[in-house]
Amino acid sequence: MAKHISGRDKTCKVLALLTLSWFVLSLAGCETALLMPLIQLDSTDNLTYTGMKLVDQAKYREAGRAFEMALQADCKNSQALTGRGLVKAYTSDFKGAKDDLEQARAEAMTDAERLSNHIAMIRYYTQSRLDADWLAKSLAEFEHALAIDAENASVFYFMGLAHRQACSFDEADAMFARVLSLQSDYLAEASAQSAFLHKVRQAMPVTDAGRRIALAESITRADTAVLLMRELKIDDLYERRAQGVSRASSHQTSSTDKTAGDIANNPWKRDIEGILKIGVRGLEADPEGNFVPGTFLTRAKFAVILEDIMVTVTGDKTLVRRFAGFRSPFPDVTNSSPYFNAAMVATTRGLMSVRSETTKEFALHKTVAGIEALLSIRTLKDKWNYQ
After folding, report:
1. pTM value?
2. Which position among 5, 9, 36, 244 has the lowest Cβ density within 10 Å, counted as fewest Cβ atoms?
């Protein structure tokens, strides 16, 4: 016999569906056309699916709302707990993330739920890196995931990111290559990662610090000092390559140590003091005697640094005015800019490239990525056959 549904029950169900409909539409935003075909408004599975997509788009607040709604319907939903754990991991609530992921594992009933949890644990370890053996733990989760599905592209992609974070670049590249061979998920992302690792191989960082700075989207003045001292070995370079060259007074190596007022507790203090002792234009202390180590380096300042290194090593002081009166090839830099000559020296010597091949803009005020700086240093090394 069919169960009788009262008018009040019908009204409540309609209101619930309308509420969920509004929620899904607010999550989707401008991507409604993409997500709506995947959504059945009464399905927690589709809420968790949508939440996972939003996590990949770094829309953590919206993703969290999706997982919370799924958990309101079923507080033991393993996929929703896994998803909420990921949101917490990416928003630095690592204790909450671990608690959710462990509860999700205890509630997992299917291989799909267990697989999702193993992948999420790899992502958690990569993001938090709280344990000294976080990479080993990630590899253990990777093996468990492969035992469930040996051809899941997500498993290889996120293990690739773990190896990348650990600076195990060859292992990372192998993982991304496997993603590309599977021709499934994360193809564009794996391709971009492979392209990045190709640049790392070109730059060939030789120190642990250099390899870690290679991962930085924007480097600081302190990072720059480290790269010049440890990767370029600028002090040795100046001694070996500038023999007999009259150096400008601003570059004379001082016999006394130099420091700055704000680097006493900086982990890169020795490298910064080395740069201050040598004297590199663009990396001086400010008028108050501070180095401001955490300030991000701009492309304008990096061009000045590279120009100064070229002048010092070659002894050609005319480089600082070589392009006076030239017409600027950059639509965003006039030839009257104080950084124009440095930008021209850096680009014509192959030490830097324009920021956009389409617009040919130099982008003076944009920051410098770690790999960009390392490629410039590699070019300097190759130019002078110096390792």
Report:
1. 0.83
2. 244
